[in-house]
Amino acid sequence: xxxxxxxxxxxxxxxxxxxxxxxxxxxxxxxxxxxxxxxxxxxxxxxxxxxxxxxxxxxxxxxxxxxxxxxxxxxxxxxxxxxxxxxxxxxxxxxxxxxxxxxxxxxxxxxxxxxxxxxxxxxxxxxxxxxxxxxxxxxxxxxxxxxxxxxxxxxxxxxxxxxxxxxxxxxxxxxxxxxxxxxxxxxxxxxxxxxxxxxxxxxxxxxxxxxxxxxxxxxxxxxxxxxx
Length: 228
Fold this sequence. Notes:
This protein is mainly α. It has 12 helices and 2 strands; from the N terminus they run ααααααααββαααα. The protein has helices at 6-23, 36-45, 51-64, 68-72, 76-83, 89-107, 115-119, 126-136, 154-162, 171-181, 187-200, 219-224; strands at 138-139, 142-143. It has a two-stranded antiparallel ribbon with strand order 1-2.
């Protein structure tokens, strides 16, 4: 596509978000949770695994270890056995326990609500922190966390590239590029919309471009269909 000014790209991004909100009015985080601690734990477990699979394990996980205090004292072998179906079970169990110990030791057992503090926990990266911040620490439609950003997972990277909103493959670079063109109030929802759209229409290997609600705004989709 021809070079696009920042103003034009921002308007196109706003139109994309608006149309996707209309397409997926129920879009939300697909990891089952009842608290910031549960979502933080579930997001760690979701690395290289589907949210649906994680949701089959977390009910028993949180029944046995319902809080940071409980998880901090958990036996690693027992946690490993429970999360084994999710892959990378040893590292994931270690991350859950160490993250919980940090929350207890550094934050009095409460999950912190800033990007800096969350990424300071062992086993927590930017994507995980942004999932928690954007899902659990928002209110009234206004972002009320400090320093959070856009959730960049495989769906977000793939679809944002196809939409021509970024050309980068680096998640951090993509996040900062998207933060420049997407309205701050839409940062958390943008990530959720990418997941829903990526599963329903903009599939990795065979996107269903003819049924896409943002086709007119997608240079990749129009090229696939031979449209000008």
